[in-house]
């Protein structure tokens, strides 16, 4: 509910920052997707060519990049669902702040599941 | 002589941002972002789960792994849908970003032309790869191929 003090400006707080993060993550995922289709297309060249290039994904630097990428994808996906709820669910706008913190919590849970397993794959335990 | 009157819109008319109503391209684009987004949640999470979580994760990905997956029409259709929806959704999202930030008509046109070119080329390339892929290319080193290639 808007008050004289806070006004109705759509600026700062959860609404703006989730939008900023949604935009940056979407842009980053799109650029990665272009590269990812290209590297996968190497299966049409030869098994050696594909294995050589995909081998870079298994290095430490790329392994950490994958953490950032998966983090961006999970955030964008969950926040996208939040946008859909705000648009189509009759109570969506009332609960938009809670929905945002829901996104943050589910994101943290999924990352906590992915991170140890990925690090184990990377550093072999 | 009647004096001219100023007419204002009926204060009860609904606020509309554009003059458009009914079905129009921007509204379809808005619907598409939400529909494709919902489908992409399943496609992308399934993709990450199978490729990065199960088995050896990223360490297990090589030619034989991809060959094993694409030997099945299930994963061919999965990846095809993900390719098309992901690139059209992402491309349409980047179109919005360009419209927001590129001020000059010329810059905006050039950036969008580059974007559409990249999207079309990547969709065509990816589609060809999925459908013309041979998991057991003749003359290839057998140890690099999926196990079902023997014989
Ligand atoms: C995983 C499931 C995904 C969901 C649920 C989702 C959801 C959404 C939604 C609802 C929007 C529209 C926002 C609006 O109209 O204001 C959007 C925008 C966008 N999405 Fe996705 N998306 C997903 C995956 C992707 C992928 C894979 C990419 C990249 C290839 C991507 C790139 C973008 C971009 C660039 C935008 C525009 C952002 C902006 O205008 O600020 N999204 N997404």
Automatic annotation (TrEMBL), chain A:
SUPFAM superfamilies: Fumarate reductase respiratory complex transmembrane subunits
Domain of life: Bacteria
Record-level GO BP terms: tricarboxylic acid cycle
Membrane listed as a keyword: yes
Needed cofactors: heme
Molecular functions per Gene Ontology: electron transfer activity; metal ion binding
Location of the protein in the cell: Membrane
One family name in Pfam for this protein: Sdh_cyt
Family membership: Belongs to the cytochrome b560 family.
Name of the protein: Succinate dehydrogenase, cytochrome b556 subunit
TrEMBL record, chain B:
Name this protein carries in UniProt: Succinate dehydrogenase hydrophobic membrane anchor subunit
Gene Ontology molecular function, alphabetical: metal ion binding
Regions annotated as coiled coil: none
Main location: membrane
A single cellular component GO annotation: membrane
Cellular location(s): Membrane
TM region(s), chain numbering: 37-54, 74-92, 113-133
InterPro entries, per the entry: SQR/QFR_C/D, SuccDH_FuR_B_TM-su
Keywords: Heme, Iron, Membrane, Metal-binding, Transmembrane, Transmembrane helix
Matches recorded under Pfam families: Sdh_cyt
């Amino acid at each position: 509910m808007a008050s004289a003090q806070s006004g109705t400006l759509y600026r700062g707080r959860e609404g703006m920052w989730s939008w900023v993060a949604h935009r940056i993550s979407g842009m980053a995922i799109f650029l990665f997707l272009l590269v990812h289709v290209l590297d996968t297309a190497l299966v049409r060249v030869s098994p050696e060519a594909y294995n050589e290039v995909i081998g870079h994904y298994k290095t430490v630097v790329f392994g950490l990049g994958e953490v950032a990428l998966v983090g961006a994808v999970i955030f964008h996906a969950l926040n996208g669902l939040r946008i859909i709820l705000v648009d189509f669910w009759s109570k969506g706008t009332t609960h938009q702040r809670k929905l945002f913190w829901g996104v943050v919590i589910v994101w943290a849970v999924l990352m906590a599941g992915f991170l140890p397993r990925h690090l184990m794959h990377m550093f072999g335990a | 002589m009647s004096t001219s009157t100023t007419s204002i819109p009926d204060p009860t008319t609904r606020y509309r941002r554009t003059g458009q109503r009914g079905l129009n391209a921007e509204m379809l684009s808005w619907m598409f972002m939400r529909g494709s987004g919902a489908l992409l949640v399943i496609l992308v999470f399934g993709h990450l789960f199978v490729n990065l979580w199960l088995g050896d994760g990223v360490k297990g990905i090589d030619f034989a792994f991809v060959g094993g997956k694409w030997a099945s029409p299930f994963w061919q259709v999965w990846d095809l849908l993900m390719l098309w929806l992901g690139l059209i959704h992402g491309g349409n999202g980047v179109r919005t970003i360009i419209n927001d930030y590129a001020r000059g008509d010329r810059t905006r046109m050039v950036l969008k032309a580059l974007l559409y070119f990249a999207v079309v080329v990547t969709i065509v390339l990816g589609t060809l790869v999925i459908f013309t892929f041979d998991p057991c290319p003749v003359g290839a080193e057998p140890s690099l191929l999926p196990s079902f290639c023997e014989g």
